[in-house]
Write a structure and sequence with these properties.
Elements lengths: L31 H24 L3 H15 L1 H10 L6 H24 L4 H8 L2 H12 L6 H24 L1 H27 L5 H23 L8 H26 L4 H8 L2 H13 L5 H20 L2
Helix pairs in contact: 1-5, 1-10, 1-12, 2-4, 2-9, 2-10, 4-5, 4-8, 4-9, 5-8, 5-12, 5-13, 6-8, 7-8, 7-13
């Protein structure tokens, strides 16, 4: 999925015993590394569609390896986190599991859509998730939404309409791929809403790991039910599975969370909206996809609408 903006952790409070500088000439801490980490996180997220296309495997299989390897790699840090703060079964844990199942559906649909339409279109359409998060918060949590939300919604839907129209003109398969990507956005929104509730009782990393494990198990079940084999793929496919897990699922998560610890969310959140743009630009040399003016306009409208929603509506 696309996707794919990780759950934001709570900002760490500054140490109370840290001495405050008294010399006005004391240099300020550099923000080069946080900005670099944020940029690498965006590129890693943007590469996810490229890796999916190169793997050329069924969507559920690709998603299983992505989340399964990531959960395995981060199992030791998770164990250390649980040792410091024991995990107790309850609503937050079940919400994390539900978030993982939503993410599994998101990945299965989005990975499939990447193989049917352009990588850029699939990523743009799946990243409409913040719109559905807003509507879900309105219905489920009775959160109030400003006029800017509806303006952003209409702007993004206009862009999505342009992208879907271009897909259907390109053929039935591409049109279906666009619809699958849009459906993936709904489940990605479910992931965010469930994670919001899970984070009321769990730390950011614990919630992420439980969701990753639930996603892997859900996608494994989907592979078995759909008869999609887990073995027999090319070496290149397995390398791309590994890249999805380490670069996108683990690496981008760590980079973005590092950036969130040093930069305000008002900078990080809109910057992450550049993920579809990154996919669009990377797909030109890596996949040979050259979007026409109409699709580029549709993608920009989607990003603009989501930016309005993130920046001004709540």
């Amino acid at each position: 999925m696309p996707a794919r903006e990780p759950t934001r952790p709570l900002r760490a409070a500054p140490r109370q015993d840290a001495p405050r500088p008294t010399n006005q000439d004391t240099p300020r801490p550099t923000r080069t590394l946080p900005y670099l980490a944020l940029g690498l996180g965006v590129v890693g997220l943007g590469l996810s569609a490229i890796f999916v296309r190169w793997a050329d495997a069924p969507g559920a299989v690709t998603g299983f390896y992505r989340t399964g390897i990531a959960a395995l790699v981060m199992a030791l840090p998770f164990g250390l986190a649980v040792r410091r703060q024991p995990l107790r079964a309850g609503r937050p844990v079940w919400m994390a599991v539900l978030a993982g199942l939503c993410f599994a559906a998101d990945l299965g649909l989005w990975n499939t859509s990447v193989l049917m339409t352009t990588a850029a279109n699939a990523t743009f359409l799946a990243n409409t998730a913040p719109l559905w998060v807003g509507l879900g918060a309105l219905v489920l949590f009775r959160e109030r939404l400003r006029f800017a939300f509806w303006l952003g919604l209409l702007t993004a839907l206009a862009g999505a309409g342009i992208l879907l129209g271009g897909d259907f003109l390109a053929g039935a398969a591409a049109g279906l791929g666009g619809l699958l990507a849009l459906a993936a956005g709904f489940f990605y929104a479910g992931f965010f809403l469930a994670t919001q509730r899970a984070r009321e009782g769990l730390g950011a990393f614990t919630s992420w790991w439980l969701s990753a494990l639930a996603s892997a198990l859900g996608l494994l079940l989907a592979c078995l039910l759909l008869g999609q084999p887990l073995t027999g793929y090319t070496t290149a496919a397995y390398l791309n599975f590994l890249a999805l897990a380490l670069v996108t699922q683990v690496g981008s998560y760590l980079f973005v969370n590092y950036a969130l610890g040093h930069l305000p969310a008002s900078i990080v959140s809109p910057t992450l909206l550049l993920q579809p743009i990154a996919t669009l630009l990377l797909a030109i040399p890596l996949l040979g996809e050259r979007p026409d003016l109409g699709r580029a306009l549709g993608g920009l409208l989607v990003v603009a609408g989501v930016w309005i929603v993130n920046r001004h509506s709540r």
